Every structure is written in structure tokens, then in C-alpha cells.
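Before any further analysis, we paired sequence with C-alpha cells, yielding the entry below:
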Amino acid sequence: MDIVIRPVEPGEHGELGEITAGAYLGDGLLDFGESDAYLGELRDVAKRAAAAEVLVAVENGALLGGVTFVPGGGPMADIAGPGEAEIRMLAVARAARGRGAGEALVRACLGRARSVEGCVRVVLSTQRTMRSAHRLYERLGFTRSPERDWNPLPELDDITLLTYELTL
């Protein structure tokens, strides 16, 4: 059966939150591990779903992963400006990796961005160590936009997020 991309259902918020938190923890992406404040944000799918569009990848009834699509500004946008959509918190369960769920989720976000009136670009932030994600973004046509790189915790020198963009 094929991977289906659809909006998250309220009953899946907890499971997707754990998939997302587990992906970030398992890949060593949280500087402070289990005590990282961002872990709560990763788990809070209900908050994201209230402010943006949260999509999930499902295969044979199993949740494989999810992504947050931000069609414009608002509380979930980190770097999107006017005319831009943003992709955030892409995560695929470790056991489901390599089957195309991440790519399907990103492609779904691109399709949604193309349907947003006035949207001319999709942007995202990523960590330096997310090399497989970088390869995926580049394969789909994203290019680095180093002038937009930023630090979500300015008090810490070593947490610079890389940015990518794709002009629609």
C-alpha cells in the first residue's frame, strides 16, 4: 500500500508528538537531551495544529511521521516573511525511514504552498547535522540561503540553524 499524506487527526496528536520528540532525541538533535525546552514544543502537536497545518504520513494505518506547514506568518513561523510558507518539525519514525515518507511530506507542503495565493517561496530551517534532510531538500530543488541562517538561542554561540528556500 502507498503512503498517504493527510491532516493529523486529534486522536493522533500524542503519537505524532512522541514520533517527533523521538526522532529529535534519537538523532541527537537536542543540545540538552531530555531536559531540552524544545522537547515540549515538539510534543505539543495540538498547539501546532491550532496555529498551522500539521500533516502526517500514514501507511497501512500506521503513523510514519509528520510535518508542520505554515502557510504564512503567525505564531508558528520562524523565518517566513510575506509571500512565503514555512516547513517545520519534519520527523519520521526511525523504523519507517528510507521508505519515502519524509519526501512525501515535503512534497505535500510544496503542493499546499503552490495553492496559497501570493505564496512565491517555501523556507525552512535545519540543523548542520541533519545531512540526510539536506540531501532531500536539495533533491527537491531547495537551495541554501545562508544570509538567513539564525540562532534560536542567541545566548548560546553554537546553535546556528541553516536555512533553505525554494522559489515556486
Remarks:
- The longest helix spans residues 101-115.
- The mean pLDDT is 94.
